């Protein structure tokens, strides 16, 4: 599903924009905007639902408790009244469905920007070496990896998979060939032979785990040395992995801190992501009553997420997409926050805004020596 959307929807859009303006950085920006516009109705539904639930939740919780208490001995009537309540304010889960519907497209977009042409593409094959006398009893199970669209030129790309017809289990001393091929079975090497620059996209094979168990040659053939588990990687260079855009040195660059040096372009992208996330959250609370707990969460969450992405291995091209998507989300949130609310929700919101915050109420009551409802009675 993800690969199909990437190959048949997202990459053709990238090709189109690259044909208009030969810049993969601008192509990422344009692709992000197109996808966000296409998903606008779904994400708008989620934003509207979250806004309405934020207003209605206190009232709904109070009325739910009253209904459950009043009809504790009549489950059927209880469900009927709860259904009416949901009909009046909507279900808290209503905002989840649009998110679920758009998730495959967002995953496909993420996978597209992490692969060719924006980054080097690794094919990982987990191998298991067994004693020669034991491998004879193992039934071969053909292995095929996930597919990646490999760009050989700006306009030519091919879905390529790695395969092992005999499976990933081999015997000691046995030698097998990992085949890179198209979905129709054409060898990847034959595809490359049709292009003058094909040699630039020859895979680099190496053992990333278990060097004592297997060895791999430059053509992708693997030999079992001794029993154990190993991982073999074939990495194909990304066409635009080293292409820059604005202040970004390379769209395929990964890592904030690499080999003792700080990649300031990655730092700026991550900082931009955090800033746009803060702005988007601030806009989502525009015109809402103050909620100290929510306010604290809104301050902590962007810091945590931003800190995580400083050390999460994401290519610069993916971070660029995330910043543009956050800007679009902030604009969308601002526009939707100006929409008129249904009369029942507007009345509730007006009541909430007219009341002092919980903190203010507590302070006033304590200053007067009054007991709040949640405080224990005095023994005096």
* Span of the ends, CA to CA: 70 Å
How would you write the strand order of the largest sheet?
5-1-11-8
The whole-number mean of residue pLDDT values reads 77
Query: What is the structural class?
Result: alpha+beta
Q: Percentage of helical residues? A: 40-55%
Radius of gyration: 28 Å
Pattern of helices and strands: HHHHHEHEEEEEEHEEEEEEHHHHH
Beta content: 15-25%
Let me know the largest β-sheet.
4 strands, mixed
How many domains make up the 3D coordinates? 3
Instruction: Give the overall form.
Output: globular
In the predicted model, the low-confidence regions spanning at least 5 consecutive residues are: 358-376
Number of helices: 12
Total strands: 13
Describe the structure.
By secondary structure, this protein is an alpha+beta fold. It has 3 domains: 2-113, no CATH class; 121-236, no CATH class; 257-344, no CATH class. 51% of the residues lie in helices and 16% in strands. The protein has 12 helices and 13 strands. The protein has helices at residues 2-20, 24-38, 40-70, 75-89, 96-114, 132-135, 188-192, 264-284, 292-311, 316-337, 343-354, 358-367; strands at 121-130, 143-144, 148-151, 157-164, 169-171, 175-177, 179-182, 204-209, 214-216, 221-224, 228-236, 257-258, 261-262. Strands 5-1-11-8 form a 4-stranded mixed sheet. Strands 2, 3, 4 and 7 form a 4-stranded antiparallel sheet that branches. The protein has a 3-stranded antiparallel sheet with strand order 6-10-9, with no helix packed on it. The chain starts with a helix and ends in a 13-residue tail after the last helix. The model is unreliable at 358-376 (pLDDT under 50).
